[in-house]
Amino acid sequence: MTDPILEVEDLNVYYGKSHALKGVSLSIDEGEIYGVIGPNGAGKTTMLNAIAGFVDYEGTIRYRGTDLATVNPQQIVRDGLIYCTEDRDLFPFFSVHENLLMGAQFREDRDAVQDDLDMVYELFPRLDERREQEAETMSGGEQQMLAVGRALMSDPDMLMLDEPTLGLAPVIIQDISDALERLSEQGLTILLAEQNSTFALRHAERLSLIETGEIELAGTYEEFHDNEYVREAYVGVH
Ligand code: ATP
């Protein structure tokens, strides 16, 4: 047994008096896709924001054994834990190509950066066709691909994806789905936060269900798939 790549222990986040995350714990193994599902406002984004160091929290978050409270968000990125936010945070007036290069800004090995550019363009041919197009003029799905592509340019060991399918057409969701499968086959660890439980269940090996800031259920894909409450409340609604 190797140690988990990410360990979250008794995580609590408060927004003023509002207790947004209430003692959340989970651990993610290297190379797995871990799904976090739950309704709007349950606390999924808050959890990813805490891991990325964007919000204050109580509790412990360890990445490869390092307590993330002791490192700044930039160092977390350098250590290979990359966050693709729900807002995508693209540079709207930069081209596709420039946005991708921004993802590699902390890297020095130019050959490796070029290899990853080639890999991203091969993974998402739509980006290849639109290298010079400004990010803000891309469709929602293309922007999501660009956000994932830019995250890949940071050479992640672990990728956190917040709602990558939100608002996207089924055909685009399929493209994102295919890309995740390929990345997972290459050994990338993925933490996937999704309201779209069907999508999360399609990919995740293990999952947690968060409701009102608490983990209500955690288990394997099979346990979630067979769980009556999950099926009734969450599956088939997308
Ligand atoms: P969604 O799928 O809608 O993004 P979520 O599961 O990611 O939902 P969060 O965005 O983490 O949920 O929100 C959890 C709770 O914390 C919600 O009640 C939300 O209103 C609240 N919240 C989130 N960010 C802030 C903030 N900056 N200030 C105050 N309250 C916040």
TrEMBL record:
Identification of the protein by name: ABC transporter ATP-binding protein
Signal peptide span: none
GO biological process: L-amino acid transport
ABC transporter domain: residues covered: 6-237
Gene source species: Natrinema salsiterrestre
KW Membrane (keyword) present: no
Annotated family: Belongs to the ABC transporter superfamily.
Record Pfam families: ABC_tran
InterPro entries according to UniProt: AAA+_ATPase, ABC_transporter-like_ATP-bd, ABC_transporter-like_CS, BCAA_Transport_ATP-bd_LivF, P-loop_NTPase
Gene Ontology MF terms: ATP binding; ATP hydrolysis activity; branched-chain amino acid transmembrane transporter activity
Transmembrane segments: none
Keywords: Amino-acid transport, ATP-binding, Nucleotide-binding, Transport
Record's keyword annotation contains Protein biosynthesis: no
